[in-house]
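hey
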């Protein structure tokens, strides 16, 4: 059973072709926006050697020329789908965007993601490729 799961995750990661919009020491960030019932969300995929399992969601901190702001993920249960074969995984979560967020994100240079754990927290920092990020946010 575990080998079947590892094989499925390995194939998923091998087939993953989405270009990244940010990179950091633990991997790269991918994703894009979508709308549901008039609300706008951003789906984030963290691809790399990072692994996490939490039931408390995460907080995204955005910083750039327009200042800083934070958003909590809509996703509460977050768990990395990890391939032992490839020694990397994919962690996915979503957060809501409002119109003011879009304006602030236009100058985003850094993203810090904080995952709370039972004892302490795990932080991941990423440098944003602003042009690639805006294509994902504004589409």
């Amino acid at each position: 059973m575990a080998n079947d799961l590892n094989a499925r995750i390995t194939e998923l990661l091998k087939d993953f072709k989405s270009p990244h919009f940010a990179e950091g020491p633990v991997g790269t960030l991918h994703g894009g926006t979508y709308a549901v019932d008039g609300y706008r969300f951003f789906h984030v995929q963290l691809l790399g050697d990072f692994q996490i399992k939490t039931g408390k969601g995460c907080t995204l901190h955005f910083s750039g020329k327009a200042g800083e702001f934070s958003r909590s993920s809509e996703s509460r249960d977050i768990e990395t789908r990890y391939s032992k074969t490839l020694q990397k995984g994919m962690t996915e979560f979503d957060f809501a965007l409002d119109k003011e967020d879009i304006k602030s994100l236009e100058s985003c240079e850094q993203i810090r993601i904080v995952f709370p754990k039972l004892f302490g927290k795990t932080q991941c920092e990423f440098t944003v490729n602003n042009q690639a990020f805006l294509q994902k946010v504004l589409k």
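The chain has a mean pLDDT of 89. Helices lie at 2-15, 99-105, 130-137.
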